[in-house]
Amino acid sequence: MDYGRVVEFGVFPEPSAEKLPEALSMARIADREGLELVGIQDHPYQRRHLDTWTLMGAVLAGTQRVRVFPDVANLPLRPPALMAKAAASLDVLSGGRFELGLGAGSFWEAVQAMGGPRRTPGEAYRALEEAIEVIRLMWSEERSVRYSGEHFRLAGVKPGPKPAHEIQLWLGVGGPRTLALCGRVADGWLPSSPWAPPERLPGLHARIDEAAAGAGREPRAVRRLYNLFGTITDGPSEGFLHGPVEQWVAELTELALVHGMDGFLFGPAGDPVRQTHRFAAEVAPAVREAVARGRG
């Protein structure tokens, strides 16, 4: 299964306060060496982590080319109207280099400990559905907008500023209902390799594609971005995403041409600066070439 979209590459730096120099170095390498994306996880209750949105502002200020996004934003702790405002602001400040990854939430005890709601699966689904509608209303050119949902409300608020470009909304979801929601209304899907190894991808794509077709959309309208965790080595293979450059090139090419993925975010298991250099210089260009040859 190949949706035929342009393949993009990026990095997934850890937002640890202690490892800030490494995170900023990874973003600068991505920017300088031809990658397109920087995705940063958003777990506000993690005491070792910097605030993701503040860090994204610093990354955008220190780069010129890459697009930056939360991978994925923590909806239970971030009201969608304010999130839309922050996203639009970062997009304007960066000249159109911000995208929005969004999740329904997890780690509910930690969310609740920080003052957020503890939602059932059904509530989390409905909150995500409503949040997408609220965010897009806040990016609209309407003079004022209203919204009345189970979880979120707008009472004549004036949207603005307008984003500098049409911000993509990518969902980090995995349940049947949320995958269908992704297919109906989202611009992209953001799974991670440990949770969604290659053998699981066909069934997950099928739910997205069926919902997209039911909503009158082409399945290829939904970008498929993959968070990858592993190590580029100089020795023999130690399994999926743990091996030499040639293995990485073969696996990512197969993920693009056979398993439908068209964006790859690399989270190195160790030595992140050197690993990022290798991913940018040795893996990404070779995968681009192999995918182009495979598409003929």
Structural overview:
- This protein has 296 residues and is an alpha/beta fold.
- The longest helix is centred in the C-terminal third of the chain and has 24 residues.
- The protein contains nine helices and twelve strands.
- The strands form two sheets. Strands 1, 2, 3, 4, 5, 8, 9, 10, 11 and 12 form a ten-stranded parallel β-sheet that branches.
- α1 runs parallel beside α9, α3 crosses α5 and α5 runs parallel beside α6.
- 42% of the residues lie in helices and 17% in strands.
- It starts with 7 loop residues before the first strand and ends with a helix.
Question: Secondary-structure map with pairings?
Answer:
Elements: E1 8-11, H1 20-32, E2 37-40, H2 52-61, E3 67-70, E4 73-74, H3 80-94, E5 100-103, H4 108-113, H5 121-138, E6 145-148, E7 153-157, E8 169-171, H6 176-185, E9 188-189, H7 201-214, E10 223-232, E11 242-243, H8 245-257, E12 263-268, H9 272-295
Parallel strand pairs: 1-2, 1-12, 2-3, 4-5, 5-8, 8-9, 9-10, 10-11, 10-12
Antiparallel strand pairs: 6-7
Helix pairs in contact: 1-9, 2-3, 3-5, 5-6, 6-7, 8-9
